[in-house]
Amino acid sequence: MTQAKSAKSAKAQLFEDLKHQILTMELGPDEDLDEVALCERYGLSRTPVREVFRRLSGEGYVDIRENRSPRVSPMNHSTLRHFFLVAPMIYAAVGRLAVRHFTASQLADLRDTQAQLRQASLDGDIQAMVLKNNRFHEIMGEMSGNVYLQTSLNRLLIDHARIGRTFYQPHDQDTARRRQDSIDHHDQFIDALVARDEEAVVRLSYEHMELSREHMELFIMPPGLKPEPPQSL
């Protein structure tokens, strides 16, 4: 019984660790997952490790390929184009329902998560910012109470987190301003929820996504393909 419980715990830990590493880009898009190494590290046989891979695949974290190692779900021009097309619509729909159905305890969780996000920003903790931002939007999904939207939202949040890994690292004054605007939007979301203002939530959903749209190039252009500065004649 103890051994079975230990294996179950190790399997759950592997699942959570891989999710965390994918969201924070410790495991990058397209990166292969070493089944043998994971078996050894977590003291598991191949069957439970493969079950974890299948579960992660079902949630959108991992691609399972025939006769090849599983890999972290890719991010390329096509996937990001679809992300930025659909994400505002999903967030807006989630927001509308959240306004109608949120509970006091969910609102308290949202406020607490926002406070943690602001603190992470002050500390310059990029990883914590990514995870707290993700949690903020997860709570919005929970507020909606709609399983169909939550499923779509959870898949979007995987790529939102990976985009956030770069978005939250300001490269100049403009990107620093965008990061601050994004964090401020969260306070505005909370105010709109309290006011039961659906239209404000919808507007914010589109404005929120627009802040990171211009950062797509950072994910789809390998360093070797970045344009060189013009040469002097």
What distinguishing features does this structure have?
single chain, 233 residues, mainly alpha, 10 helices, disordered C terminus
Structure write-up:
The chain has 233 residues and is an all-alpha fold. It has ten helices and two strands. Strands 1-2 form a two-stranded antiparallel sheet. Strand 1 and strand 2 form a beta hairpin. Helix 5 (104-123) runs antiparallel to helix 8 (173-194) and helix 6 (126-144) packs antiparallel against helix 7. Mean pLDDT is 88; it is low at 221-233.
Number of strands: 2
Rg measurement, Å = 19 Å
What structural category do the secondary elements indicate? mainly alpha
- Mean pLDDT, to the nearest integer, reads 88
Strand content: under 5%
Give a short account of the largest sheet. 2 strands, antiparallel
Number of helices: 10
- The rough form would be described as globular
End-to-end gap: 76 Å
Low-confidence spans: pLDDT under 50, at least 5 residues?
221-233
Strand order of the largest sheet: 1-2
Order of helices and strands: HHHEEHHHHHHH
Helix content: over 70%
Spell out the blueprint of helices and strands.
Blueprint: H1 2-23, H2 35-42, H3 46-59, E1 62-63, E2 71-72, H4 77-101, H5 104-123, H6 126-144, H7 147-167, H8 173-194, H9 198-213, H10 217-220
Antiparallel strand pairs: 1-2
